[in-house]
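Loading example: each entry is read as two labelled lines plus one structure line.
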Amino acid sequence: MIGYFHEKLKNGAITSVALTEKCLEQIEKKEGEIFAFLTVEKEKALARAAEVDEKIKRGEEIGILEGIPGAFKDNLCVAGGRTTAASKILDNYISPYDATAVARIKEAGAVILGKTNMDEFAMGSSTENSGYGPTKNPHDSERVPGGSSGGSAAAVASDEAIWALGSDTGGSIRQPASFCGVVGLKPTYGRVSRYGLIAMASSLDQIGPVTNSVKDAAILLSIISGEDRSDATSAESSGKKFEDFLSPDVKGMKIGIVKEHFNSLNPAMKEAMEKAVSQFEKMGAEIREILLPNNKYALGTYYIIMPCEVSSNLARFDAIKYGMRADDHKSDEKTGEVWERSLMENYLDSRHYGLGREVKKRIMLGTYALSSGYYDAYYLKAQKVRTLIKKDFENAFLNNGEDSVDLILTPTAPTPAFRIGEKTEDPLEMYLADIFTVTANIVGVPAISVPAGKIDWEGKELPVGIQLMSKWFDEENLLRAAYAFESVLKRQSNQS
Amino acid sequence: MAIKKEEVEHIARLARIGTTQKDIEVLTKDLSAVLDWMKELEEADVADVSPNEHITGLENVMRADRSEPSYRRKEIVKLFPESKDGYDKVKSVL
């Protein structure tokens, strides 16, 4: 779609202002129901679009993303704009700087519509943990859009934005993409600079695109990837244009599947996955059964490492440097006595009122797991198991000689979108929504969710996605296979 | 319960999170459920396995020790919940 609109802008068939107005109209129309946006910057967006139109009028060249409207997840800092990460503690926070990914998108000349809703500090799989209310799934407003980048996925799925960026710590781009029927890409750890992304778990977080097509995801990845001196973990991408590697040809590509993944699924889901596998076979890919023996520890490992990093990262929200501070005076409920808060009371109350239930829980889990006497049993153990899980992937991708595979295919999520409120009371149920996605974060490999059609589910037709993972820094093959699959699926749905 | 109420109170204090009695009850239940579930890692055999340090194997990244322009002071001061004469005003520590 980005390429399509780019051509139309260039040949004068549409203007950037018209395109931006179209998105704004859609936002106006849909937001009451969907609530994908926390902030919409109408004037700024239209002003930027007018600048691009001027440039086109002057006959100047425009870049591929120039003048094309999109949105950022609200944990990405945008200079001079409100950036809340959907938390009340950052309700009044105006970022003084741009995240590197944001700066790169701005340099590419895109129109920025606003900031999208999410689970508070990206902690959740449904966007129900937002401090500002849940986002709804555009396919069924009684269902969640997934999370935590639920706002980004819902905005793209309901044509409120042409592209969006999200962040993915355990599936937060891919799972909502699958629930909303769009494409979501988590790049290799280090592919995209995390500078200016409000940190959740620094060894797992990655920024990535949510789009309507694989090609759009590739275009955005080319723009946002690359080394950045402000993030020491970022890697060189040598100005690669990922969209140039797309081709519908996957002949001879070796794709690994794990039998247990499929066996655990509900029949309708299983059928959709088996269809996807046979589709790849038809296209000439070689399907191989592989073993990932330590995969069963992935979710447990994730739920130790992630909260540990959360507890450390979120210590910065101390109500001293920025953000919400509890009122300086409080009165005793019984006596009505009023006193000035001490420093300690200020920390305790600001974090008590400013942070949501799930966030507090994860901070405390991490604090506990890292505390003296428990460190070895939890954190150190989890980091060792992480090494084991990584070894499984090294074996599958690199060390099995002839038996090595290029990609691994799994469902993105065990089910289509669930109902709002369905999993809020059982945190473990909610965590299981991430079972297929967390592994890519634990081992750092890139992974993408691509729509695999719709299935009959609880009397509704709901979208599902397949997930593909490739070896570290091999987004070229990942995107190529995703593109090939998408091309066939689009052809099939056009025919029917 | 994998964790006792008193421990939860202690952890909340360490994490600088104010809690009510009801919060403590809910958290004790929530944390216990997750901690029980983490037990599944106990069976993983990690003898002679070294802990993961950096997932893509990156080592120290160095740069020249040179000062560079940073954020504008005025904008940062504006973010302070309370400021006085361009300083961040905090509660007395002692």
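The mean pLDDT of chain A is 95.
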